[in-house]
């Protein structure tokens, strides 16, 4: 069993840290919200007043933070953990951030002999609780192999995407594609309904034809076609439009940096931004089908 | 066994008629190309000098023609088959055409007590030969039930999409969605590669994540990732960009008629038209990934 | 002064016929609405019970109808005017319709020695009343020269766009571009406002820079920047979103027919369709800026 | 006459500094390329070994650098000019950079009582040489009024866009709109040509109609329609596709930051990136019309 520090105990990080505890690891936790810390402590975690205190004995440091600036500030800021983490330790950052920050942070940590993998997740809060997340990992093979057993305590599919930053790239590519699948599926279903077809019949036909995709399989955007999906719960729960819009923003940054052309992804980004701007930011992203429905 | 007339023996119609013969039906065939007719006759079909002669004893008339104007001209033109087909017979039109023509033709035929279903297919030439096509059928339930056993001799999945024209609508919705899936997948893969990821690794990750779709499953657009797909054969064979562009044109017509908004499908239509216009019209439609690759 | 028949006395056709009367021509009018006819008769026009009666002495026949099917039905239907118009006469069709119908109708009329130009207009109801319309004319030079003095009684700019159908093509190209200008200008202004800029200041800067375009010059979509434009009248009056959507539908048809790629125009078509579908169809098309404003 | 330091003597900065000298100012120049410095010195400028030396007596510091990181590094880096510029001086940064960097740099400078305006330009190398640039200025009114007479020595239109960063926002809004105008105009012209219209005739019609915009007025993308524009010089000279793509990247960043939806601008960004990726990055941006022309 390993000695792990876990930083960032939000909707995702909290249950992830819980699963590490359940697997028998020694976990020192830190978060700015005392309630979040208290919950984990009640489950057996230790904590400390300062984050620097939490990491000083850790072999693994796992972080789950909102944005690149937080990751940069935590590790390499003036009073960054770079000055406290033991050489030879492995930082596993599961935040969804830009590749540029990954390269900057991992390079500086390497100068102090601290190892790093980026390991963003997919699977949502449900996956975090159930321990069925997917991890897309960027870093060298040795570090990936070291991280893998730890990640398997929190997730089901652990992918090695490539070198530093590749985990982030894989995640933005996947989520950009997901946005394309969802908006494309939504407008195809609505086009069919506008022309007299039944949503369930058309869904079934496309699911068994070349239009088949993840959204038709497990996340149909039309209310009533599937049970236990956000569309059948007034688009509550699931993956918020605002979060999809955030990931699409990262995808656009990535494409601008590499001077890539992603017209479909860019249009999807703007459709989800439009949908969020019309007041649907906190609804599940499958609610985009409502945009295509004529009033 | 039924008495069937089959009109239109092209790349699709020829093997479809063959499969009807193999199932033991009596088939009278017609096409403007004598070679196409001769091949089917050698397999046991009958024929006649005039198409009107072919249909006079038929219980079922199957047609497979290039465009709506041909279907309209064949059935309800001045010397149309409407004057020769026996009342009570069933016309099964498998051409991919616009819903408006379906309504016009089926309505006029109904006046002479001739039944009609639209039954466009997906599955390509390979599916036509193997008898594994999917049929999307529009028409009333009784006619669908009558058509089904005949269609099962040529295909595997027989869907009842709804009333007259619904088969065509289902097909354009599915193919519009397929175009979205392919162009979206292509640009996501290229974005990953532009940022250092391996196409096969990224394909594998997205296939097991929420980016999963038919193109990643069976039709990967990156050369070398899958065997026996067009991308691994220099984009030869498969579904030509020009044919995808034609289907997307029908989807745009459908959307304009119903005043529907299909931004993703419309962009895909224009990307495939651009790709065709740059000289790739006769290449498989998965070759669109080449458009996103920087020179 | 000429002997003119005028068919179609709607919002546009009525004032156009009025202007011909004011110029001193003899005008025989026809419309299905008796009130529309009565108004023109009170201004000096003649009429008849049947449209065929109205055209029998005419040297010029001007028509202004809603769609291609009406034009086709009027001139070449079973009881079409083709059987009544004097050989050597000139038909000036000002309806906005598809090029295909223009070619079909003009070709059939030519067989009876009846000349034809397509002459769609821009300038709206205001332009029709003021006699300041623009006409985009398709047809041969001789017919254009014959039509020009008549058109000058109803408009200000008379363009010879090319052969039959070219007037329609010019109009859909212009209106597709206008839709692009308006949606692009709207989102640029909203982006500026979202980042703290004043709409009037930004409008002024772009008007004097390379972003200058017709919408910034005379039709600013932001309320309060200009007087006497629809945006300063709650988007009433002006050019209805539904009509722009109709013209964009024709543009899409044109692009599909010629297999042209028009990604910007296609996206504009879908944005205006979306805007209409959200209940803004009868508002001026500049109201699209409301779509980009976050709630 | 003022004491001015000018930093960054590239294609734009060089001629701008020249024009300040011609207006009679004392100008101390700095650049990493000795040749660029030597040219200005031969025209009367002074220089120094270190950039910190150049600015110590300056009332105005003008900078023209490639990207935000250069501006940040110059002014507020460890050895930044913030430590050398006299309190009360005014920094005029004419680089095209992101609003975030403007806010960061101007805020830090303000702490040392150094004033700042962002003043990006449009008008290109030709405008820099002729002294006819447009400046879009962000900052407070007093600083704008102070900067204005200096800027008038280098440009013709000096706009006050708003507070710090507003100059940058105005520029990206304008250039995003320009990209929309150019791509929209290009595809409208090509659609017309694909349907038999002459580019010059259609340009003329749209120029006098509601499709009128800056590109049709002074920068027609069709070869031969206008003299002395890049399209009539094989798309050499002018505004490179790569530079337009860079500005569109900044526009996308801006839109992502403010969560704005700019579908037309985003599509234009991706079309220009596609065009650059197909080998046209160093051609004028009006060459995008070649993308729409079928081979």
UniProtKB/TrEMBL annotation, chains A, B, C, D:
Q: Does the keyword Oxidoreductase belong to this entry?
A: yes
**This protein's name:** 3-hydroxyisobutyrate dehydrogenase
What this protein catalyses is:
3-hydroxy-2-methylpropanoate + NAD(+) = 2-methyl-3-oxopropanoate + NADH + H(+)
Q: Which family does it belong to?
A: Belongs to the HIBADH-related family.
Q: Which residues form the 3-hydroxyisobutyrate dehydrogenase-like NAD-binding domain?
A: 165-291
Gene3D superfamilies cross-referenced by the UniProt entry = N-(1-d-carboxylethyl)-l-norvaline Dehydrogenase, domain 2, NAD(P)-binding Rossmann-like Domain
NCBIfam families from the UniProt entry: HIBADH
Q: Known InterPro entries for this protein?
A: 3-OH-isobutyrate_DH-rel_CS, 6-PGluconate_DH-like_C_sf, 6PGD_dom2, 6PGDH_NADP-bd, HIBADH, HIBADH-like_NADP-bd, HIBADH-related, NAD(P)-bd_dom_sf
TM regions (residue ranges): none
Its Enzyme Commission number(s) read: 1.1.1.31
Which EC class does it fall in?
oxidoreductase
Origin organism is Thalassotalea psychrophila
Q: What is the lineage of its organism?
A: Bacteria, Pseudomonadati, Pseudomonadota, Gammaproteobacteria, Alteromonadales
Q: Which PANTHER family match?
A: 3-HYDROXYISOBUTYRATE DEHYDROGENASE, MITOCHONDRIAL, 3-HYDROXYISOBUTYRATE DEHYDROGENASE-RELATED
């Amino acid at each position: 069993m390993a000695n792990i520090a876990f930083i960032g105990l939000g909707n995702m990080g909290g249950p992830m840290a819980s699963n590490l505890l359940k697997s028998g690891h020694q976990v020192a936790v830190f978060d700015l919200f005392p309630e979040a810390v208290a919950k984990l402590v009640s489950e057996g975690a230790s904590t400390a007043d300062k984050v620097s205190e939490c990491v000083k004995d850790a072999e693994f440091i796992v972080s789950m933070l909102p944005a690149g600036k937080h990751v940069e500030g935590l590790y390499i800021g003036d009073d960054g953990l770079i000055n406290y983490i033991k050489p030879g330790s492995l930082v596993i950052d599961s935040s969804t951030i830009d590749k540029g920050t990954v390269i900057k942070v991992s390079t500086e940590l390497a100068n102090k002999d601290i190892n790093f993998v980026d390991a963003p997740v997919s699977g949502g809060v449900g996956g975090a609780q159930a321990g069925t997340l997917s991890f897309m990992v960027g870093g060298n093979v040795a570090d990936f192999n070291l991280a893998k057993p730890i990640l398997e305590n929190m997730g089901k599919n652990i992918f090695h995407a490539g070198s530093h930053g590749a985990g982030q790239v894989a995640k933005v590519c996947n989520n950009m594609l997901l946005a394309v699948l969802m908006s494309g599926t939504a407008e195809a279903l609505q086009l069919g309904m506008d022309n007299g077809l039944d949503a369930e019949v058309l869904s079934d036909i496309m699911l068994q034809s070349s239009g088949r995709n993840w959204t038709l399989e497990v996340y149909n955007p039309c209310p009533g076609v599937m049970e236990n999906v956000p569309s059948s719960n007034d688009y509550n729960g699931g993956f918020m439009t605002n979060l999809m819009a955030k990931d699409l923003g990262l995808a656009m940054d990535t494409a601008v940096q590499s001077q890539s052309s992603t017209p479909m992804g860019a249009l999807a980004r703007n459709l989800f931004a439009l949908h969020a701007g019309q007041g649907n930011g906190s609804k599940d992203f499958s609610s985009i089908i409502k945009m295509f429905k004529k009033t």
